[in-house]
Design brief:
alpha/beta; Restriction Endonuclease; 2 domains; five-stranded mixed sheet; 16 helices; elongated
């Protein structure tokens, strides 16, 4: 007889429990709403008060409650105010699961609520700290109800967007990909399509040439409605090496002249010798005259030409990565659900899906 398979690690059982709990409510919104109403009436009023307070805090605290609850249900005599073994791993996997279900998430809940410390009740969010303590004294049946309530509540925040389809890699020729990009950029989006396409294709090209990874280059782009300053970025799209900005791109859905002053200021803020403007360019009349008062080297390139150039030097697998990254940006970094669904439809219309 063969040996029995080893039992799953606690951190993996935590993820399995959480994903199953959310999925149970995800595809039945009417039942989820009914469950929320019922469970809020059944649970201890103190737990409801603390949960509501926690849900008003940053999402990290919501996900922290999720994970700590699951650890407590998987481990006997668990102290909910302390991070479970493998908690960081569970947080990362939970973030991935939420992202796949189009539910708002953070990459690592513990990064914000318990970095470098096993103690989670640190006095930053009183309702969160007190809810963890309540969980320590609550019977399992009450904690199960709290997990079910939280799962139903969070499932109702999922965005009803179409998933990214499987792409037909053999069809990702330069002509077809550029045709898709031209159609996408011709659709008004307040600059979202331009910015996210630049970020996605830059990142895919960096990866194709083996310049990414630990110690390598990375691409960062902000939410479409966020100002550069509030987003903590120097420009719309940045190429980073660690915390250092290597290149900065201001991207516009209009004429390049409207971005000139902003681009120069972005270079100054980041102490960069040059900055790039990607916009719609008919001519460069007046560029040299406008730069006489600055030493900043400003490049101006038509955004369509820039994207075509990136697509031209990519092989088909990198083009596939770029189109998937573009979906992720449109889905996560702007609020219009129809914009996501329109992109998926466009992929099919241009015969790029399997």
């Amino acid at each position: 007889m063969g040996e029995s398979p080893a039992p799953a690690r606690v951190s993996q059982r935590v993820i399995d429990r959480l994903v199953a709990s959310v999925d149970r409510h995800l595809n039945e919104p009417d039942a989820a709403r009914a469950a929320v109403e019922t469970l809020r009436a059944e649970l201890d009023s103190r737990a409801i008060e603390l949960l509501d307070g926690t849900l008003k805090a940053p999402i990290s605290y919501r996900d922290g409650v999720f994970i700590q609850l699951a650890f407590g249900l998987e481990e006997a005599s668990f102290d909910h105010t302390h991070k479970g073994e493998g908690g960081r791993s569970s947080a990362g996997k939970f973030a991935t699961a939420l992202a796949e279900r189009h539910i708002p998430f953070v990459k690592d809940a513990y990064q914000n609520i318990g970095k470098n410390s096993p103690n989670l009740a640190r006095g930053n969010v009183a309702s969160f700290d007190d809810l963890l303590r309540w969980m320590n004294g609550a019977p399992e049946a009450e904690r199960l109800k709290l997990l079910d309530l939280l799962s139903a509540t969070v499932a109702l925040t999922a965005r009803p967007v179409r998933p990214m389809p499987q792409l037909a890699r053999a069809e990702l020729t330069f002509a077809k990909v550029v045709g898709l990009l031209d159609a996408l950029l011709a659709t008004p989006s307040g600059g979202a399509h331009e910015q996210f396409a630049v970020a996605a294709f830059l990142e895919a090209l960096i990866d194709e040439f083996g310049q990414g990874g630990v110690g390598g280059l990375a691409v960062r782009t902000k939410n479409i409605n966020a100002a550069d300053a509030s987003a903590g970025t120097a420009a719309d799209v940045q190429v980073m090496r660690g915390n250092r900005i290597e290149e900065a791109f201001e991207v516009s859905a209009s004429d390049w002249r409207g971005k000139l002053a902003q681009a120069i200021q972005a270079a100054r803020n980041a102490d960069l010798p040059r900055v790039h403007i990607l916009a719609y360019v008919d001519n460069l009349d007046g560029l040299a005259e406008s730069l006489q008062a600055t030493t900043t080297d400003v490049t101006v390139i038509d955004v369509r030409v820039f994207l075509r150039s990136l697509a031209a030097v990519m092989k088909k697998p990198a083009r596939e990565v770029a189109l998937r990254l573009l979906y992720d940006h449109i889905e996560r970094k702007q609020p219009d659900i129809e914009r996501v669904n329109a992109y998926v439809e466009l992929l099919g219309r241009h015969a790029l899906t399997a």
